[in-house]
């Protein structure tokens, strides 16, 4: 089995009626690898993440995730594939404010039987997995589980979001500027925990940010601008 | 199941708008059901006004007019009929009983009806229920005795032995009073929920005595006045009455007797079948009643459109919620389903609250409505028809829920996982 988790080849994408936004000849993410992808806003990184999640379909080229060609799947199958194998952490306001912390963490298990099953296999039950993940991420106050998500600080919320991305050990965790709302200390601590948990779950981490200072902590660092021929052309 | 939990939690997060929406739907549902109940009861109590009477006979005019003044105490007779006409048909071999009715006077807005004791014996309402005395007795030989309907006694606070003065004519405020000949209350009827409750009953002799010294519609003056004592000694046989009710030995004879009365050569008479006339009258009022129903249907529609507006308005602020759900694996149809469930939950809560309001309202207003409008609103479970109405409201809500669902479906396809807020 190939060690590549994600393989893009000759990918081209444009929003309807617009010039081509992404033109990526080749891109690979290895299993278990942590990759820093630098991209300023407007560089097409959100679109790229959408493509990797199978929300959008490229006009040309191939996206292989876990050896499967996403373009061949139906929209529903792509949705299922995404939740089975990918956890997401966004910039901020990741959580549904009206659900408890526990319910937020367990959301993927309601939509993916595979993730729920893996969580049970590893920790005995989904509730157990939730508590353990949160404890690993430094959220081990007993009353916190049932608190409403919006009662937490931003830093705590991001860690809950990380727990949600990690529950059921997806092969890939995609983090889109998850630290931009945190101060420097919290940022470092958050990254530390995220790395540790990804390693523990065996997940690859694709971390997108414009903050170059974080790059040295990753296995590998790339700039979307280098990757993407379309922006290079636009810049010229 | 999990969608339901999510939808309820999300609604709970917007509980103020959600409550307002539910309340608007509840009020409209309550209104619709209340109108429906009043409508049904009004129709029933209307049909219950008179029963057991086979023919109503009066001077020739319209059948509805005759029904209105003889049974509902509304409007006036165009003409009186002669006593000998009444006698002739009262003694007809097909006739089992006859009740003479003489109208024209009033007491503080309530109609006074001159009649005979046959009225208390033979008049029937609802399902052949006879009139019953709550207290006292019916009038006897003394002409100046009055038997009150239940509402008259209650509204005016009269008890047995009360001396009351009748007024000439039927206007609420009458300048001509029969104050020289007061009547004493000898009986009060039990409540019937019909116009009987709003009537004062006196004997025909009493009616005659009141007007014995009147000339050309004016009371006599000076020496021409006849006192109550003098009147008692006089011949009080009435010469004319307003109408009469007939009960026949056999229903089969109804039509032939009706024809006979209508072709009577002594004077122009009109005989009507109360059931047919009631039907005609109801078909007149039916339009108003239908209009009321349609209006309340539109109120329900307004309530549902309010819900639709509230959900549609919330969609934009909830893009983030949708995107998060998408990122944790919700498919676009999950998002659509969430909104349909939400619409249905709002409507269901509205319907339930509406029912609660209805029953609270009925419980609170029951006695008042009965006392003032003669309508008995039962605290009964919703009828099959009402259940169907409620079902239709919920179905409409589901259908309306498809509009935001479709929009959210499109929106979540376009937005994907990106949050553009």
Automatic annotation (TrEMBL), chain A:
Residues 6-236 form the ABC transporter domain. The keyword ATP-binding applies. It comes from the Bacteria. Keywords: ATP-binding, Nucleotide-binding, Transport. SMART domains: AAA. SUPFAM superfamilies: P-loop containing nucleoside triphosphate hydrolases. GO terms for molecular function: ATP binding. This is Methionine ABC transporter ATP-binding protein. It comes from Pseudomonas fluvialis.
Automatic annotation (TrEMBL), chain B:
The keyword Transmembrane helix applies. Residues 19-231 form the MacB-like periplasmic core domain. It holds the Pfam family FtsX. This is Peptide ABC transporter permease. Residues 294-412 form the ABC3 transporter permease C-terminal domain. It is a multi-pass membrane protein. The chain crosses the membrane at residues 16-35, 291-315, 336-369, 389-409. It comes from the Bacteria. Coiled coil: none annotated. Its main location: membrane. PANTHER family: ABC TRANSPORTER PERMEASE, ABC TRANSPORTER, MEMBRANE PROTEIN. Keywords: Cell membrane, Membrane, Transmembrane, Transmembrane helix. It is found in: Cell membrane.
């Amino acid at each position: 089995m190939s060690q590549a988790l994600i393989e893009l080849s000759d990918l081209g994408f444009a929003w309807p009626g617009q010039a081509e936004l992404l033109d990526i000849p080749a891109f690979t993410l290895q299993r278990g690898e942590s990759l820093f992808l630098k991209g300023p806003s407007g560089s097409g990184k959100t679109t790229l993440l959408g493509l990797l999640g199978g929300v959008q379909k490229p006009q040309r080229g191939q996206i292989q995730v876990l050896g499967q060609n996403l373009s061949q799947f139906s929209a529903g199958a792509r949705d299922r594939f995404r939740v089975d194998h990918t956890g997401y952490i966004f910039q901020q306001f990741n959580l549904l404010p009206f659900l408890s912390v526990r319910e937020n963490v367990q959301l993927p298990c309601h939509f993916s039987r595979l993730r729920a099953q893996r969580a049970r296999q590893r920790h005995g039950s989904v509730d157990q997995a939730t508590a353990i993940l949160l404890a690993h991420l430094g959220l081990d106050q007993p009353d916190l589980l049932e608190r409403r998500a919006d009662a937490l600080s931003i830093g705590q919320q991001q860690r809950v979001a990380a727990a949600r991305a990690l529950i059921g050990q997806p092969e890939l965790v995609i983090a889109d500027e998850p630290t931009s709302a945190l101060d420097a200390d919290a940022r470092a601590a958050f990254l530390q925990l995220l790395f540790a948990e990804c390693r523990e779950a065996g997940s690859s981490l694709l971390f997108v940010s414009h903050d170059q200072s974080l790059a040295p902590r990753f296995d590998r660092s790339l700039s979307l601008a280098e990757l993407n021929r379309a922006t290079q052309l636009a810049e010229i | 199941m999990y969608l339901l939990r999510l939808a309820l939690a999300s609604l709970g997060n917007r509980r103020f708008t959600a409550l307002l929406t539910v309340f608007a739907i509840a009020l409209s549902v309550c209104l619709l059901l209340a109108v429906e109940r009043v409508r049904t009861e009004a129709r029933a109590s209307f049909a219950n006004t008179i029963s057991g009477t086979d023919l109503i006979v009066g001077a020739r005019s319209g059948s509805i007019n005759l029904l209105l003044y003889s049974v509902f105490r509304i409007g006036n007779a165009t003409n009186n009929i002669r006593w000998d006409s009444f006698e002739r048909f009262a003694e007809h071999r097909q006739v089992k009983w006859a009740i003479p009715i003489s109208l024209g006077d009033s007491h503080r807005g309530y109609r006074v009806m001159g009649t005979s004791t046959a009225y208390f014996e033979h008049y029937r309402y609802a399902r052949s229920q006879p009139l019953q005395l709550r207290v006292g007795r019916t009038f006897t030989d003394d002409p100046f005795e009055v038997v009150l309907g239940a509402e008259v006694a209650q509204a005016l606070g009269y008890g047995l032995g009360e001396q009351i003065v009748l007024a000439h004519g039927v206007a609420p405020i009458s300048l001509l009073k029969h104050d020289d000949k007061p009547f004493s209350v000898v009986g009060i009827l039990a409540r019937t929920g019909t116009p009987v409750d709003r009537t004062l009953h006196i004997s025909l002799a009493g009616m005659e005595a009141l007007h014995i010294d009147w000339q050309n519609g004016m009371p006599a003056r000076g020496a021409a006045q006849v006192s109550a004592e003098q009147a008692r000694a006089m011949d009080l046989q009435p010469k004319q009455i307003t109408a009469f009710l007939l009960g026949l030995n056999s229903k089969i004879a109804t039509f032939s007797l009706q024809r006979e009365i209508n072709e009577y050569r002594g004077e122009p008479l009109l005989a009507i079948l109360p059931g047919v006339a009631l039907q005609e009258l109801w078909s007149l009022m039916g339009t108003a009643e239908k209009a009321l129903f349609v209006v309340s249907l539109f109120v329900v529609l307004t309530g549902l459109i309010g819900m639709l507006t509230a959900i549609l308005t919330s969609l934009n602020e909830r893009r983030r919620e949708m995107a998060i759900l998408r990122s944790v694996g919700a498919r676009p149809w999950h998002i659509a389903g969430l909104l349909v469930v939400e619409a249905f939950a709002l409507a269901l809560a509205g319907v339930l609250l509406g029912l609660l309001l209805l029953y609270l309202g009925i419980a609170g207003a029951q006695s008042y409505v009965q006392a003032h409008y003669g309508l008995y609103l039962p605290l009964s479970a919703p009828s099959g028809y009402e259940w169907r109405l409620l079902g239709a409201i919920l179905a409409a809500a589901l259908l309306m829920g498809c509009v935001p669902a479709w929009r959210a479906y499109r929106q979540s396809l376009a937005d994907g996982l990106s949050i553009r807020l």
